């Protein structure tokens, strides 16, 4: 689905603004922006590009409702941060890293200035950011919540710094819509239309797999935001009631253990190693996998499969 389809009536508005150069200090981030994660390495790489080539894509801004004479960033905050004069201090760059920033930072940035109310600004920001590939799982879930609030008309927006409250507020309503479809036909239809436009998942899948990320404790929330842990791994750790097992899983995750490896540790601890192994075999075993094997390895796998088949058939007799 295209950006224009997602924006609907806003698409025409987004092409009618004025483009002009605005100084860095006249711009500020929006207080309602949920995005908090700007990985250091990628921001430094963008800063190097900005110093060499300038900012090549317009930021999208609106006149600031709170700060007259300034502009609130709707989309493009990462480019604004990468252009900051005090970037070296903010990122605590080493001497070599700072030396790699050739040229001065741009004094002004190209901006598309739009006149939008709060709801349309949030909607446009969410659509623009969800089409980027550098969002972490927490930020992506928060932007989807902004759009869900928009389509459900669920009242004032919660503080994006309080992800747990935001998830609880909308989570209760989403669970009610899912569990009682006969009472919420219109809302279900609006959610289905929204998520069909966004792609990648259904709204029911979002409620089950993504919404719980926003209710993680701060330690795990930070680990996901900083790229030190996958969202699935954080949820797996959070669901463990044994404090000792949680510490084992946290330590393993910090050393780079994958979700599958963490799940095996849980299965081993609970005496259910066979469940994880069965899931791994089911995931890896398929016609295409067997076709990629050489003849010798395929023959060995076939012998093992025949032994497995005999064993399973014997257990049913």
Automatic annotation (TrEMBL):
Superkingdom classification of source: Bacteria
Gene3D superfamilies found in the cross-reference section: 1.10.10.2830, 3.90.1530.30
GO CC term (a single one): chromosome
One Pfam assignment: ParB_N
Domain ParB-like N-terminal, first and last residues per copy: 20-130
SMART domains: ParB
UniProt GO BP: chromosome segregation
Stored InterPro entries: Chromosome_partition/occlusion, ParB/Sulfiredoxin_sf, ParB_N
PANTHER family in alphabetical order: CHROMOSOME-PARTITIONING PROTEIN PARB-RELATED (PTHR33375)
Name of the molecule in the record: ParB-like partition protein
Source organism: Deinococcus grandis
